[in-house]
Amino acid sequence: GAVVSQHPSRVICKSGTSVKIECRSLDFQATTMFWYRQFPKKSLMLMATSNEGSKATYEQGVEKDKFLINHASLTLSTLTVTSAHPEDSSFYICSARALPAYTFGSGTRLTVV
Amino acid sequence: GQNIDQPTEMTATEGAIVQINCTYQTSGFNGLFWYQQHAGEAPTFLSYNVLDGLEEKGRFSSFLSRSKGYSYLLLKELQMKDSASYLCAVLSGGYNKLIFGAGTRLAVHP
User: Would you say residue B8 has pLDDT above 90?
Assistant: First the structure.
């Protein structure tokens, strides 16, 4: 079946630094990928839709300058958390559609200290 | 606006049957998904309904009524490993965005 590879799985960074998270579709092409954020014991909150070759579409309330998304190829989307702060600590997870299902990456646990 | 409701928590006994309900109100509807998620892991696909009716897949079944904005996930012959969160998600919008409900935490007891 379709596989979405996401890394790193865990990252700890200092406040003020930036962190890049990669999401790759391994055996299919994804013109669109989705980035979610999940707080403990909460559901997935859609942050943005990543579009290959064009600008990402952000959900209301998500700062586009804070969460930079690049979708440079049909198999790779990246999310960069810029100038990270402790409140950005969360579980970030990407997704792409391989019909009929949406397949998810394994997620990235970000801790900002 | 979009609103997806499902119970927060449920408990059930090993070997029993449990039904997890989901109601939704969304702008545009292109289908409904159910996912299972264990703590700290990625969601895994369970079912997809786009037409009214029941879809059966092994121990899991999912039902959809578009006119009522209602779906349920039915789990039969419950096993301890079925203890997880079950996420109802609606596909909507031009980009086919998958919007999740808050999830139902199911605890299966011996």
Answer: yes
